[in-house]
Design brief:
226 residues, mainly alpha, Histone Acetyltransferase, Chain A, 9 helices, 59% helix, elongated
């Protein structure tokens, strides 16, 4: 008899607990449904906090200033934040930078020899580095170029053909002529450097197509030393 009563009491308690749990769960559901925007907002905040812990995507870096100084290109890894974001060069890019093809290596060696002698010209001094301290230069000259940029491109095997190299040297001298008066010393330097450049390219057996210099009788021996 006592066992039967105990079983009845347990059953009643179980039913009461089930009813209470159901009522409590329903009330929680109703409360949550009444504050759906707040619930979504809290979920969003939790997800955002987790993203901030795992990612640097919200970091803000300063813009590039090298182009204002006359540079025409920049290595990807030198851009602020790129390495921190996890960027890595592909295996193909690594192999290309460490082991350029023989024709490209041979071409770069010849172009580097031309560049080395060109820099020794006594009239090459205006072109050794980007133009600075001239307010309107980069307003007039839309595509600046200088010998230091050419050397950087040689270092990374940028020039795949002689024509690409010729294009940049022509930019150097033509920019000078465009900005400076024809009676100025700078204009004369451009003419002398251009004539020497063509002579050096010919000595390296490198073709220069459809290029008529302003000055054709510069003596290479007289201009190749300081």
């Amino acid at each position: 008899m006592r066992i039967r009563m105990l079983c009845i009491v347990c059953c009643v308690l179980y039913i009461v607990c089930c009813v209470l749990c159901t009522v409590f769960a329903f009330r929680c559901y109703v409360v949550c449904c009444q504050d759906i925007p707040g619930m979504i907002r809290r979920q969003r905040d939790v997800v955002t906090d987790k993203i901030d812990q795992l990612s640097t995507s919200r970091s803000v870096h300063g813009g590039l200033t090298c182009f204002r100084e006359g540079k025409r290109s920049v290595n990807i890894e030198d851009i602020p934040g790129v390495l921190a974001a996890g960027w890595k060069p592909s295996a193909k890019e690594c192999r290309a930078s460490l082991d350029p093809s023989p024709p490209l290596t041979e071409l770069t060696a010849k172009l580097s020899a031309v560049m080395k002698l060109l820099k020794k010209c006594k009239d090459a001094w205006p072109f050794l580095a980007p133009v600075t301290g001239v307010d309107d230069y980069y307003v007039v000259i839309k595509e600046p170029m200088d010998f230091s940029t050419v050397e950087e491109r040689l270092r990374v095997f940028f020039y795949k053909t002689p024509d690409m190299f010729v294009h940049d040297i022509k930019l150097v001298v033509n920019n000078c002529r465009k900005y400076n008066d024809s009676a100025s010393d700078y204009y004369g330097c451009a003419n002398t450097v251009e004539a020497l450049f063509l002579q050096l390219m010919q000595k390296q057996d490198l073709p220069v197509k459809d290029y008529k210099p302003k000055l054709v009788d510069a003596a290479m021996d007289g201009n190749s030393s300081r």
